[in-house]
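Hi support team,

I've been running sequence recovery on a batch of backbones for a student project. Most finish fine, but this one hangs at about 90% for roughly twenty minutes before it completes. I'm not sure whether the input is malformed or the queue is just slow. I've pasted the structure tokens below so you can try to reproduce it. Let me know if you need the job ID as well.

Thanks,
M.K.
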């Protein structure tokens, strides 16, 4: 057997944290079933692994971005129904009908094609009606909805078993969001009431944590399942599932006046113990953290990043901490919230998590 070295940068993923966060979602939206959103490789946590680990959790659906993700989950042997969160296009629809994945509809044209394909296959495809109540990304507009709904209901190959909409500002604008909940409720009533639909859904993580979802019977949490709250108030109840880690590769003392990293944007002002760590933007550790006061966690201490993030390596000021090559470093996880890293990089936690690249080995484990 050839020797295999341990990975240079890795993400530890605690599957028990996911289950705990799922329980928080259930508590926060009593009476609602759960669509666990696992798009973008389960927010970077590993699509097949996360789908398999939640397969027995009595979920109504997994929410995926596209047919590629749906196929991977189905091919992994997971039987949980799969819901396509985004619009589909023509070339994808035969596969969707064949596999019985659940699309959301925004136009009559899509609906007709789905219906024709289903009729040709001797099937009836379950679909959801998507309604645009303010997101502007997909769905039927409220204007003309009655008429459109009648036409959809007349199509023989589809069964409209759900209705959904999406919240653009549940973590930013309470007045607008309350208006969406009210408007969505009216739309459901207008189209036949709660009894007409098997599934009624509006909320993402922020919507289910912050608002009353009793008018719905399904919620679509993503981010919170991975242990990150989209709004500050709920973070203590959640547990971060991913810890991004690497190792110190070098520790040296640089003299005063020595530049560190590209552009020499950082220059030492005193003799400085500089530790080099084997992770960079090629792993998804954002280059935008350069010069923003970011920190890493090593040997029980936070140490400041100095100089620019390079593709494969970063440098920190080790100060008085006795670091050694091989020391394990947390870039984010229990000691450094990913939300903090995102804020310092000028972005959101969703982007940091989904931006961790394939070079980072995902190591799944089942708790402490
Ligand atoms: C991504 C997505 C979600 C999950 O959003 P979070 O904010 O991560 O909880 C829910 N619904 C739709 C339509 C989405 O695209």
């Amino acid at each position: 057997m050839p020797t295999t070295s341990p990975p240079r940068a890795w993400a530890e993923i605690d599957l028990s944290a996911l289950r705990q966060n799922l329980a928080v979602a259930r508590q926060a939206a009593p009476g609602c079933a759960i669509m666990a959103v696992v798009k973008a490789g389960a927010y970077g946590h590993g699509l097949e692994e996360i789908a398999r680990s939640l397969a027995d959790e009595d979920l109504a659906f997994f929410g995926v971005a596209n047919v590629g993700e749906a196929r991977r989950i189905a091919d992994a042997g997971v039987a949980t129904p799969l819901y396509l969160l985004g619009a589909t296009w023509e070339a994808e629809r035969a596969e969707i009908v064949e596999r019985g994945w659940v699309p959301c509809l925004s136009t009559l044209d899509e609906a007709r094609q789905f219906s024709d394909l289903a009729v040709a296959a001797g099937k009836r495809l379950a679909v959801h009606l998507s309604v645009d109540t303010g997101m502007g990304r997909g769905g039927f507009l409220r204007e003309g909805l009655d008429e459109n709904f009648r036409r959809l209901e007349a199509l023989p190959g589809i069964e409209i078993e759900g209705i959904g909409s999406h919240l653009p500002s549940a973590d930013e604008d309470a007045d607008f969001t309350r208006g969406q909940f009210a408007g969505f409720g009216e739309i459901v009533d207008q189209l036949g009431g709660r009894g007409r639909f098997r599934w009624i859904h509006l909320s993402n993580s922020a919507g289910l944590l912050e608002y009353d979802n009793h008018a719905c019977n399904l919620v679509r949490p993503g981010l919170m399942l991975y242990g990150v709250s989209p709004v500050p108030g709920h973070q203590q109840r959640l547990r971060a599932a991913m810890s991004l880690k690497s190792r110190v590769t070098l520790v040296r003392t640089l003299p005063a006046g020595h530049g560190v990293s590209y552009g020499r944007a950082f220059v030492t002002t005193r003799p400085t113990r500089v530790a080099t760590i084997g992770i960079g933007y090629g792993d998804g550790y954002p280059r935008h953290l350069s010069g923003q006061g970011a920190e890493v966690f090593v040997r029980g201490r936070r140490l400041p990043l100095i100089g620019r993030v390079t593709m494969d390596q970063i440098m920190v000021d080790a100060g008085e901490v006795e670091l050694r090559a091989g020391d394990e470093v947390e870039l984010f996880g229990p000691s450094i919230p990913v939300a903090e890293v995102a804020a310092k990089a000028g972005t959101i936690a969703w982007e940091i998590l989904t931006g961790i690249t394939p070079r980072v080995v995902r190591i799944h484990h089942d708790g402490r």
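--
Follow-up from support: It reproduced on our side and the slowdown came from queue contention, not your input. The mean pLDDT is 97. No action needed from you.
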